[in-house]
Design brief:
The structure is a homodimer. By secondary structure, chain A is α/β, with parallel strands linked by helices. The first copy, chain A, contains ten helices and eleven strands. The N and C termini of chain A lie far apart (43 Å).
Chain lengths: 282, 282
């Protein structure tokens, strides 16, 4: 049987069609704070703006240099959040290390915190109250829903335990009643754990780190690759080349289903932000 | 080899001695909100008061009946929190179901939130910032420290995923670099998972649910039993009888180490609250 490629394109097409058919002309405005000059961040911001444009969402990008002061940023973010025209706010990560990201997020009205990283929204999720799901978690949930992967009772092995990506993903899978094992660089004999999994989710930021030796031979496992790693530039097109944390070419034929990179979780993460934003105005 | 019983008593003795030897006469005040007439809650509150008394901590208990209004409680909690004499505040759980526990906690100054359940403290933990560890998580951490159980790289299987107990325990083990599997009522073939564990932590609230069939025969596993289940009253003494979630008698000889109930994690949970309280005044 051919491996199922869990692509984002049919989901985006479906969403766009659905959006055009049903959306009343909601007026939504997205404000993005871009602090510092990380080239990858600039690409991510432009992708967000692009999707926002296509959905008729107005976008404002606020640029600050690397040395911007915490207090000034807090005042500026609070000012934007207080603006009743603004529907949702994003602080593009990573930000310079001298800044306290938690205090920056806390300037955002929780209703406009579409990344769900304010104290209020993090706590609401911990208490099981309704609020926005963080973008990556919502992206993977959308993928499961669209491709009809029912995870209740399944064993999800999550590789990577970062605050922003790994932890909310594990929490989402637990909410959906999966059994979840969280692995990281201190995990011993990782392969023996991934081989017992029904679903393996990888978010470690190491290009092609997870190869075919991590999977069983029975072609029943599902692989979700969160990684987006820059591996240079295509000399002919001048475009950057990216790959995931999974060695796609060698893993693909060994598993039941896998997300490609690019074209897998990444675009759905951007879509999830816009879904959170649109929900903030309805 | 005899099974090691991970008892709380030597830890409490050690702490008491240490406290008497080193504590400067700190003035600390603990305020406990007791809402409704849950008999178990009254016992838990009295145990907290007892330990506080022995440590020279002043205790005030605020009783409210089952029908008390959310708004009134919020005002009362805020008033106590604003009192500069008060060092730490506990809201004894469970509370009547019509109340929003998160909003009640949020009336407490995060510095006085020794249960670590305000939005601020939950979020600080999510971001890896320093704050109080929730009592059960701190209790188990103390047990590991005292009995020199180094969990880095070990496989901890956590049975139970409650917001207040299971999730903070799993997070503590992850912070200590264990690989953590979180199981619950939807987990399939739980026994095959617990048998692969180095450490099994049980917090499900079902008397003696986990029997010897959940463990390997090689007497290398460690069992931490968080359960405190009421199983009637001793007719002769009139005292209530309690047991854990683990079938202690039958599991004990099959494992390397196990916490008894009573006399295991429970008393350390109370101790942990007092440690958080004492830290709040230094």
């Amino acid at each position: 049987m051919d491996t199922l490629l869990l692509k984002s394109k049919p989901i985006l097409d479906f969403f766009n069609l659905h959006h055009k058919m049903t959306a009343s002309p909601v007026k939504a405005r997205l404000d993005i704070f871009l602090i510092g000059n990380n080239p990858a961040s600039q690409i991510y911001v432009s992708k967000k703006k692009e999707l926002a444009d296509s959905l008729g969402i107005e976008t404002f990008i606020h640029n600050y240099n690397n040395n911007t002061d915490q207090d000034l940023l807090q005042i500026e973010i609070k000012k934007i959040s207080d603006n009743t025209e603004v529907s949702g706010i994003i602080i593009q990560l990573p930000i310079p290390k001298n800044l306290n990201i938690r205090e920056l997020y806390n300037q955002i009205d929780p209703k406009k915190d579409i990344e769900s990283l304010t104290d209020t929204n993090i706590s609401k999720r911990a208490y099981g109250e309704k609020t926005y799901l963080p973008a990556t978690a919502r992206a993977v949930q959308t993928l499961f829903d669209f491709y009809q992967i029912e995870i209740e009772g399944l064993h999800v092995v999550m590789i990577g335990n970062s605050d922003i990506v790994g932890k909310p993903l594990a929490a989402m899978c637990l909410d959906k009643k999966a059994t979840v094992t969280i692995c990281h660089e201190f995990t011993r004999d990782l392969k023996s754990i991934t081989r017992t999994a029904d679903i393996v989710i990888v978010a470690i930021g190491k290009p092609k780190f997870i190869d075919e030796s991590y999977f069983r031979d029975d072609k029943t496992q599902v692989v979700i690759d969160i990684g987006v790693n820059d591996i240079g530039t295509n000399e002919q097109t001048g475009k950057r080349k990216i790959c995931g944390d999974v060695d796609f070419i060698n893993v693909k034929d060994k598993v039941l289903a896998i997300t490609p990179v690019p074209g897998g979780v990444g675009p759905l993460t951007v879509l999830s932000l816009m879904e959170n934003l649109l929900e903030s105005v309805i």
